[in-house]
Design the sequence.
């Protein structure tokens, strides 16, 4: 079974094709200031061609649904909806931070992916590997860096936490000062969400028949958009 996965929750978008039996076939990541709307389909088409595949070879589509950039998520989800309608293939929805945590497999410490939510806030969640299972210990939330540190302190006690993500880099000095030696930071090469991680979770969901109707597929927003705030205010 071949899965084509999309990750557009941050500026660094990626697409990947993963085979459930043989593993990663290909992945394209672009961290450039070009809109996802301009680069997403060309990246998918190039990746398919380079892999010797076509849309007919794809069995399932998977997409990161958030939290993250409102515009980026909408573009990724709209693209998957169009592909699913055109090909009749099923869709799997994956939470962005769940997939992001897979960047540090079997990590002995707590893992905290952090995305920059702007307005002095971050999107974050907390995970801990229990053998081969990545357990979520704190649900996705949008909060300020000081509140994040307080929430983590109540969950990790004296254990170390590995931070990853653009939000972790934006507030690295603050986190380091507040948590001292408890705070560790992942290498730069795994500081962005990966479409391959989205595909990995999608494979697990497919075993339980967990697919999403494209009609009802929506982004995971855990706070209101700027447009909603201004409209109501």
Sequence:
């Amino acid at each position: 079974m071949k899965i084509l996965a999309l990750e557009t929750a941050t500026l660094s978008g990626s697409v990947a094709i993963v085979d459930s039996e043989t593993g990663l076939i290909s992945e394209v990541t672009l961290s450039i200031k070009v809109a996802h709307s301009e680069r997403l389909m060309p990246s998918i088409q190039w990746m398919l061609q380079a892999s010797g595949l076509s849309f007919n070879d794809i069995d399932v589509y998977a997409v990161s649904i958030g939290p993250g950039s409102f515009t980026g998520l909408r573009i990724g989800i709209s693209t998957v909806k169009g592909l699913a309608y055109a090909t009749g293939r099923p869709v799997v929805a994956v939470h962005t931070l769940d997939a992001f945590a897979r960047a540090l497999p079997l990590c002995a410490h707590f893992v905290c992916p952090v995305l920059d939510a702007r307005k002095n806030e971050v999107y974050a969640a907390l995970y801990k590997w229990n053998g081969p299972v990545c357990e979520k210990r704190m649900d996705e939330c949008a909060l300020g860096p000081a509140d994040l540190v307080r929430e983590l302190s109540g969950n990790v006690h004296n254990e170390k936490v590995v931070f990853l993500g653009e939000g972790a880099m934006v507030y690295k000095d603050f986190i380091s000062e507040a948590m001292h030696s408890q705070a560790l930071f992942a290498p730069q090469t795994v500081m962005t969400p990966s479409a391959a991680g989205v595909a990995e979770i999608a494979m697990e969901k497919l075993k339980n028949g967990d697919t999403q109707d494209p009609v009802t597929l929506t982004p995971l927003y855990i706070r209101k958009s700027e447009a909603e705030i201004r409209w109501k205010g």
Remarks:
- Helices lie at 36-50, 70-87, 96-101, 145-156, 166-170, 172-179, 195-207, 226-232.
- Residues 48 and 94 are 22 Å apart (CA to CA).
